[in-house]
């Protein structure tokens, strides 16, 4: 291995230390990397000069803002629809129910992809259609994983309107549903956006662990009785987790 290549590899070894350690001193980097002191000094100087690392007033090194720029570029270039579609298609082939992908847009949720080849009954869900964050399994799975502060502010300014027989119009019941969703990792809706339809949804997270979307299995309410729901829940959760992983999420 050439000297230049060896330096690059060792520099990457140093940067990788910051995956598990938010900040490190010069001596800690030497101890953890096993690289000689003189080499560490030269590499840290170069990494700091190139903005890959920054040295704080406490003499501890941290990842530089350049990584934030790169991370933002990667995040923006990941097309969630392109990533999710084959996973949605596989899930649809398995369960033979409509599969929906929804993303948050402000206080609304937008349906951005749908596969319903085997679902012959037209449902509320359609690409481009929106719903409030409190109504429907796929919308509420996003709301449930937002901060308590956001949820409180959202509910303070939102009138809980009825869309179907099962729409939550009582704040306390909605909050109880949110808590249950957080415990279980999925949410179930019955006649919330449209009467006699049901859905089970799971959250999709990005590389930073923030919820950015939801995926649901949806169909006629009669098909979503307790025994069927027990079968569908692990399937939708696994699909959501796989999409999240491909977006850079780690559990």
UniProtKB/TrEMBL annotation:
Chain ranges of the HTH iclR-type domain: 5-65
UniProt keyword Repressor present: no
InterPro entries listed in its UniProt record: GAF-like_dom_sf (IPR029016), HTH_MetabolicPath_Reg (IPR050707), Tscrpt_reg_IclR_C (IPR014757), Tscrpt_reg_IclR_N (IPR005471), WH-like_DNA-bd_sf (IPR036388), WH_DNA-bd_sf (IPR036390)
Keywords associated with the record: DNA-binding, Transcription, Transcription regulation
Superkingdom: Bacteria
The IclR-ED domain, residue ranges: 66-249
PANTHER family: HELIX-TURN-HELIX TRANSCRIPTIONAL REGULATOR, ICLR FAMILY (PTHR30136), HTH-TYPE TRANSCRIPTIONAL REPRESSOR ALLR (PTHR30136:SF24)
Protein name, entry field: IclR family transcriptional regulator
Native source organism of the sequence: Sporosarcina ureae
């Amino acid at each position: 291995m050439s000297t230049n290549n060896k330096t690059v590899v060792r520099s990457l070894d140093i940067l990788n230390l910051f995956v598990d350690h938010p900040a490190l001193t010069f001596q800690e980097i030497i101890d953890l990397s096993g690289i000689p002191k003189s080499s560490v000094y030269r590499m840290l100087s170069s990494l700091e000069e190139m903005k890959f690392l920054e040295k704080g007033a406490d003499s501890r090194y941290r990842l530089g803002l350049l990584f934030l720029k790169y991370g933002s570029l990667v995040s923006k270039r990941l097309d969630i629809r392109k990533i999710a579609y084959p996973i949605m298609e596989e899930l649809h082939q398995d369960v033979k129910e409509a599969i929906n992908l929804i993303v948050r847009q402000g206080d609304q949720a937008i349906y951005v992809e749908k596969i319903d080849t085997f679902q012959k009954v037209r449902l509320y869900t359609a690409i481009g259609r929106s719903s409030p964050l409190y109504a429907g399994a796929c919308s509420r799975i996003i709301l449930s994983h937002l901060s308590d502060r956001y949820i409180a502010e959202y509910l303070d300014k939102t009138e809980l309107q009825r869309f179907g027989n099962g729409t939550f119009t009582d704040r306390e019941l909605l909050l109880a549903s949110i808590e249950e969703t957080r415990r279980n990792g999925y949410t179930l809706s019955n006649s919330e956006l449209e009467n006699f339809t049901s859905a089970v949804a799971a959250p999709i997270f990005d590389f930073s662990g923030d919820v950015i979307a939801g995926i649901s299995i949806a169909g006629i309410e009669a098909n979503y009785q307790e025994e069927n729901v027990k079968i569908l829940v692990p399937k939708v959760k696994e699909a959501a987790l796989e999409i999240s992983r491909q977006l850079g999420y780690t559990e």
